[in-house]
Amino acid sequence: MTELDDTSVEPSPPPSLRTAGDSWSITELVGATALGVAASRAVETAGPNPLIRDDFARVLVSSAGPAWERLADAELAWLDDDPHARRAHRLGIDYQAVRTHFFDEYFADAVSAGIRQVVILAAGLDSRAYRLDWPANTAVYEIDQPQVLEYKTGILQRHGAVPAASRRPVPVDLRDDWPAALTAAGFDRTQPTAWLAEGLLPYLPGDAQDRLFEMFTALSAPGSQVAIEAFGMNSRSNSQRWLRMRERLGLDVNVQALTYHEPDRTDPVEWLADHGWQVNSVNNRDEMARLGRPVPDDLADEAVRSTLLRARLGAPTH
Fold first, then answer.
1. Which of 30, 172, 224, 274 has the CA that lies 20 to 30 A from 15?
2. What beta strand segments (E) does 259-314 contain?
3. Which 3 state secondary structure label does DSSP give 236?
4. Contact call for residues 140 and 120 (beta carbons, < 8 A)
């Protein structure tokens, strides 16, 4: 996809921190990125005219420690002395708000079409099972590392949060036999499903990404839908953003070293279209502009490049 191409010269990615079969708690490795994303949702929710509302994000982030609580500060006080860094960080929050809005709308449309089975792959601190308006008898399966799901469940239970759907955690690594674990949790492959892969693909090797596509396609009854964020890592912007977090907050998270950099990875749009899915996609920058969060020209080099896509299995409806 041309929108993922970045022809500018960027530094080589740092050595990978990933190992086969690695696991993590919420403040480690990939788990920490879930905290960073939830912090963005917390800031967006507390701001004027938010695109999305996630009233659970702040408590999930602040419970991880004082530094994370500062990251979720709606005033971004930790960047008060650096206007450029503040604007660049705010741009990252805008992106998170726009992609969250895109996938919230996807789920609203999916349940309006009659789907009552949802699977969130690598759910992290996603609180959609609690905060979205789900029809009766909707089951929301959340797949992620055991420690991540335990953290989220424990925090929200202690704060009296009640899921708005039948929430079904599935503690399993996506590199393992997650279809078996999903089925054991009650998943019904004869019923249409709404799948979500948000902020996931770069954390999987290319072959594991392809297996993931093959597995959820095999588990999908006709009429199933999927939404995916397909993004290329902008080494320059991400390195600067996480460097500031490390220097100012002591949060040592290196997204570049946690993701897989493989230029010949399968294009999700092409793969889905070749396997029976009807795909619609949008460039994230177009979507940001549509929702009133355009990328400023002077920050274009520091902005995420991604494609947000939705697809339906089977012939298009009329």
1. 172
2. 277-283, 305-313
3. helix
4. yes
